[in-house]
């Protein structure tokens, strides 16, 4: 286990200091009004609408593998969501994988909130820097207990635990464990290990 390096950027970097930031409420209102559609391929990160990264075949395959594996492990009372929004303090990302407390019907009128999300997963290839820096900071600030980065380029799975919450000047996770092919990753929900996943089963 090692301590992760603290990112140097405290907020989403922008070239224009006068950029207009959106609240999550306003962003969701724009989605409901049809101003933002699924064809726009954007997500809200720290008040800024950013383009979602294009997905390679390896990225798509890893996302499908994650979904297959988690659906076999997650017990009743939890749901597995892929590439769907979650509602955070000033962000509404669409992680490649999420385990949330409740069924699909639980979220018919809203997106899952941090207290309902024990595990978030991002698949990283071209998105690696954003996942390691911006999204890591966002998830740590919101108290997401466990954050996985399935790195399909380096063929490793980084597991971050011990989120700082919003009090740190630069939110981060206290610890990082890196798993490699041949290793197994524990799936922890609300402090309980519900199963183990082979790294080889997550990588394309």
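-> sequence recovered:
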């Amino acid at each position: 286990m090692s301590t992760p390096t603290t990112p140097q950027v405290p907020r989403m970097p922008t070239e224009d200091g006068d950029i207009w930031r959106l609240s999550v409420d306003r962003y969701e209102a724009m989605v409901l009004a049809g101003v933002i559609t699924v064809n726009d391929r954007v997500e809200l990160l720290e008040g800024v609408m950013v383009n979602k990264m294009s997905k390679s075949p390896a990225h798509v395959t890893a996302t499908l593998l994650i979904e297959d594996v988690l659906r076999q492990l997650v017990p009743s009372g939890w749901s597995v969501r892929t590439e769907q929004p979650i509602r955070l303090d000033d962000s509404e990302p669409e992680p490649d994988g999420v385990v949330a407390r409740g069924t699909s019907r639980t979220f018919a009128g809203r997106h899952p909130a941090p207290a309902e999300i024990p595990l978030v997963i991002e698949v990283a290839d071209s998105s690696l820097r954003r996942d390691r820096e911006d999204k890591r900071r966002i998830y740590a600030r919101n108290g997401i207990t466990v954050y996985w980065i399935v790195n399909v380029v380096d063929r490793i799975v980084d597991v971050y635990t011990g989120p700082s919450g919003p009090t740190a000047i630069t939110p981060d996770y206290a610890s990082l464990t890196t798993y490699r092919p041949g290793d197994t990753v524990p799936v922890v929900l609300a402090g309980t290990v519900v199963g183990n996943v082979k790294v080889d089963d997550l990588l394309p």
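The two ends are 25 Å apart (CA to CA).
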